[in-house]
# Entry
Amino acid sequence: MFLLGLWDVSAWALVLWTALSCHVTLLAVTVYLHRSQAHRAVDLHPALAHVFRAWLWLTTGMNTKEWVSVHRKHHARCEGPEDPHSPQVYGIRKVLLEGAELYREAAADESILDKFGHGTPDDRLENRLYGRFPTLGVALLAIVEFALFGLAGIAVFAVQMLCIPVLAAGVINGLGHFWGYRNFETDDAATNLTPFAAIVCGEELHNNHHAYPSSARFSLRRWEFDMGWMYIRLFSVLGLARVRRVAPRPAFDETKTSMDIDTVKAIISSRLHVMESYARSVVRPVHRTELKGATAKTEKRTLRSAARDLIKVDALLDEAGRTRVAAALAHSDALGTVYEFQDRLQAIWHKAGASQDALLQALEDWCRQAEATGIERLEEFAARLQGYALKPFPG
# Structure
C-alpha cells in the first residue's frame, strides 16, 4: 500500500501534473532567470520573482547567480573558446548529451560568478537556504511525490529532473546554435528552432534573442509566437511585471527624402533589421537575376553554391565559404557591387566612438553612392533607408 502512495490518482492525472510542473519550470527559467535576471528586460513583482525562485529550487536545484553568470558569459564569449556551451566549439553531440555537465563545470568557476553575477539575489534566503543547500529542494520534491504517488511519483520526479538538462541545456544551447532558420545574420550561429515557440516557452526563438538580447519579447515576425511573452503580458495586466525593453520596430516615412539624427538613431537601433532587409530586397534579387542570366553551367553552379554565403556575416564564413563568395563575385559585377555596399553599410555602425554627426555623414555618403550605381534594387533600398524611423512600444 505504501508503494502506491497516499493519493490514488489516475494515470492521466499524473501525466497532467508532470506536464504542468515541467511547463512552470520552463516558464520560470525564461521569464525569471533569463529575461528578468540575466537581461533585465522585465521587472517582476517581488512576490512573483520569489515564487519562481522557490519553484526552481524545488524542481532543478539551480542557483540564480550561477545560471545568470553562465548565460551572460555565453553572450559575451559566444561561439568562442570561452563560450561555456557552444556546439561550434564542443560539437553538437556533446552539447546535446552533456549540456548539463558543461553548465555545472562553468558554474563551478568562481571567476565567472564574480564577473557576470552582479545584480542577482543576495538576501538571507539565498545565502542561507537556496544557495547553501541547492539539493535540498529537489530532495524534498522527491520525498513529497513518492509519498503522494508511490512508485509512480518517482517516475514523475525523473521526468521533472530531465526537463531542463534535455530541453534547455541540450536542445536550446545545442540545436539553437546548430539547426533552424535565421531572421537575422548575427555574429553568432544562433537559430530559431520553430516559429511557434511554446514547448520551451519562447526559448526556441533563439536567433531573435541573440539579435536583441535585452528584449523581453522573442517573437519578431507576424507568424512567430512566443509563449513566454504571452505570460509576461498577462503578468503586466495583473500588476506583477513591468516590461523595460523590447526589440525596436522599424517604420518608414515615405515622404522623407533626407536623413537627420533621428534617422541615424533608428537605423543604428534596428541595424539587424536593416541588414535583413538589404539581404531580402537587394542581395537575393540581384543574385536571382544574375543566376537567371548565366548561360554556362559552371557559372550557374558557382552562383548557386554561394547563395547562402553572400548574406552571412564575415565572422561566420569559413574558408570554403569565402572561396564560394569570391568565385561568385568574379562572375558578376552587379553582385560584386551590392556585396561591397553590404560590407560598407555594416562597417558604418562598427566605427568605434563615432559621433552621431559622423554616422549621419557616413550614411548620407553611402546612400548617395548607392543611388549612383545604376543598380535599381540598390537605388530603391538607399531611398527607403532615408525614411527609417522607430515605432514606440504600445504600452
Observations:
- Strands lie at 42-44, 196-197, 225-226, 241-243, 249-252, 388-391.
- The chain has a mean pLDDT of 93.
